[in-house]
Amino acid sequence: MLEAKLSEAGTLKKLLDAIKELVTDANFECNEEGIVLQAMDNSHVALVSVKFVAPAFKRYRCDRPMPLGVNLASLTKVLKCAKDDDICTLKAGDDADVLNLVYEAKNSDRIAEYDMKLMDIDADTLNIPETEYDARVTMPSAEFTRIVRDLSLLGESVRIEVSKEGVRFASDGEAANGSVLLRQTDGAHSSGGTIKPKAEEGKNDDEDDEGEGSSSKKAKVKREKNDDDVEMDEEEKNDEEGEGEFKPGSDEEGEEEQQDDDEEDEEGTSKKRKKKAKETKPSKKAKTSKKKTDDDDDASGVSIEMNQHVALTFSLKYLVNFSKSASLSNKVQLMMSNDIPLLVAYDFRQGHIHYYLAPKIGDD
């Protein structure tokens, strides 16, 4: 008995859209650890490995290991009947020949149920050996998608080269040639790579700005103080002239009134200074938010780890298909070693999808 409940059907829809052009029929191997799919394309050049871990489901139950042979085109059609935010439940009994899909709407009482016929697919599960790669490039998946799509307009192949300069994508076509170089982003994480992030810039500029800001504040406070002193002198002068013309009370009463006026002037000056200090606070917050934004940009930049120079040529047709997984993750990892298949890895919250692509040799 299998029961797997996903919080959003959109995740499964995006996954199938990414692999349906590479794989026609495949087995979803279900066990207590989760659901795994491994399949090769018809030309045996690319391998797709997908894994949904059991904790990623809202509810997961698999009594015994069982394969679910499905036609991906048919499953895609059935999933189109679900909204992206619908709760999707996959059900299959022991030795069942039907996969049951239930879609539950989150904001209504609508429940849709579909049955899809399963297939008997003879396919051996491939054991993918653990490989130590010479180069690893982590970059935004949207940037990778743009590069391979742009270069696919020029030629059929792309040469990916990882060196101290950065990672370069180059394509030679009959009518035009093109290349894209990505250098490691300042502040991007790099462990053990020969390409190190550049020194942080703008730190001294921030300190200078803060120094200038503090000096300007002092100048403003001093200027206000001088203006207040001038106003106080004029008021005292007017009071003295007024005393010469008209004296409503005794000299002691006049002195008390003068002291009260001085205290009121001092209170007004202190209020102005406090108000000015409050007005300067938002600028500090703006600087802090700006620094946080810069940190976020660095986190989404390009990170390169390299043990030695690597340069391989691959088919752009497959890389364009791989890039469709960008809807699942905003990061992509390219792992390369000379004469070893390229690993293109997308990790998302529910699991991962890995693509393995054999390099081109000579004129192949």
Automatic annotation (TrEMBL):
Q: Which HAMAP family match?
A: DNApol_clamp_arch
UniProtKB keywords: DNA replication, DNA-binding, Nucleus
The Proliferating cell nuclear antigen PCNA C-terminal domain sits at: 128-191, 290-360
Query: Which InterPro entries does this UniProt record tie to the protein?
Result: DNA_clamp_sf (IPR046938), Pr_cel_nuc_antig (IPR000730), Pr_cel_nuc_antig_C (IPR022649), Pr_cel_nuc_antig_CS (IPR022659), Pr_cel_nuc_antig_N (IPR022648)
Query: Pfam families given for it?
Result: PCNA_C, PCNA_N
Task: Tell me the function of this protein.
Answer: This protein is an auxiliary protein of DNA polymerase delta and is involved in the control of eukaryotic DNA replication by increasing the polymerase's processibility during elongation of the leading strand. Involved in DNA repair.
Entry's family note: Belongs to the PCNA family.
Q: Which GO terms describe its cellular component?
A: PCNA complex
Protein name (Swiss-Prot/TrEMBL): DNA sliding clamp PCNA
